[in-house]
């Protein structure tokens, strides 16, 4: 399989894991990496970059992007390695048996750490996201989509923090709704308001809602009350999953919900 293949490539090229940070840095030999801060400084003064002079400076760039995004500061905005986004996609796509024609909604997609992988996989127009943070939206729209060549996928990314999904249309039916590391930051009543608005838009039986980290919006009400409110919305708790990261010692916890009846 893929993992065995990669391990064989590492072995045949003698690329073992190194024991220490010093050993890692010794490999640089003549490579002088710059910090993001330094890279940004150099970018802003055009150090070592072929660039147009003053009067031409604004005429050649179709989508001017802030330097902070070009040096990918936003890849560290939420702490965990950027590579974890791919783990989340793999887990959700496999567990929900996602197909390219499916319709997906992410609540709080941030800088598209996870969303990018969905956008690449899904057919055009099939990825929706509601996100409230301006800096994250700038990173998603001004850097990630154009730099990844994904503009043609026409994802619908809407600014908002009030669980108002009306801009996505009245008739949309979701096969997957997920929230990665976002519900834990959102007040309980707002999460419930969101679920109330979305329950009828989740495809009955096959559609899934996945929430990561914890479901304190539900558990803190107490088990019976939590189940009662879910039932009132026509939703059902399916179970809890853990998923290991491919690249670092980390696992993520996911809670799955479905809509059993039409
Ligand atoms: C920890 S980040 C996770 C971002 C992304 N889902 C990921 O896994 O990389 C949480 C995101 O939820 C967003 N968020 C928080 N409250 C929100 C709300 N009420 N509506 C929409 N987005 C919200 C934040 O702006 C932030 O982008």
From TrEMBL:
<dbReference type="InterPro" id="IPR029063">
    <property type="entry name" value="SAM-dependent_MTases_sf"/>
</dbReference>
<protein>
    <recommendedName>
        <fullName>Methyltransferase type 12 domain-containing protein</fullName>
    </recommendedName>
</protein>
């Amino acid at each position: 399989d893929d993992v065995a293949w990669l391990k064989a490539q590492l072995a045949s090229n003698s690329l073992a894991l190194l024991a220490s940070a010093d050993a890692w840095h010794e490999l640089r030999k003549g490579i002088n990496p710059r910090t993001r801060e330094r890279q940004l400084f150099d970018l802003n003064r055009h150090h070592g970059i072929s660039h147009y002079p003053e009067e031409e400076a604004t005429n050649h760039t179709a989508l001017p992007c802030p330097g902070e995004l070009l040096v990918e500061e936003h890849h560290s905005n939420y702490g965990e390695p950027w590579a974890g986004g791919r783990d989340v996609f793999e887990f959700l796509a496999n567990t929900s048996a996602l197909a390219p024609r499916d319709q997906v909604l992410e609540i709080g997609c941030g800088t598209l750490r996870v969303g990018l992988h969905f956008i690449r996989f899904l057919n055009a127009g099939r990825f929706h996201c509601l996100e409230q943070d301006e800096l994250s939206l700038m990173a998603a729209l001004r850097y990630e989509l154009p730099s990844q060549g994904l503009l043609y996928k026409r994802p619908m990314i809407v600014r908002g923090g009030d669980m108002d999904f009306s801009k996505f249309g009245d008739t949309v039916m979701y096969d997957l709704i997920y929230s990665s590391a976002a519900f834990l930051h959102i007040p309980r009543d707002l999460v419930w308001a969101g679920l109330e608005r979305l329950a009828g838009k989740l495809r009955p039986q096959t559609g899934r809602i996945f929430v990561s980290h914890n479901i304190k919006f539900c558990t803190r009400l107490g088990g019976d009350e939590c189940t009662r409110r879910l039932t009132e919305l026509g939703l059902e708790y399916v179970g809890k999953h853990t998923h290991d990261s491919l690249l670092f010692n980390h696992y993520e916890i996911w809670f799955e919900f479905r809509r059993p009846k039409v």
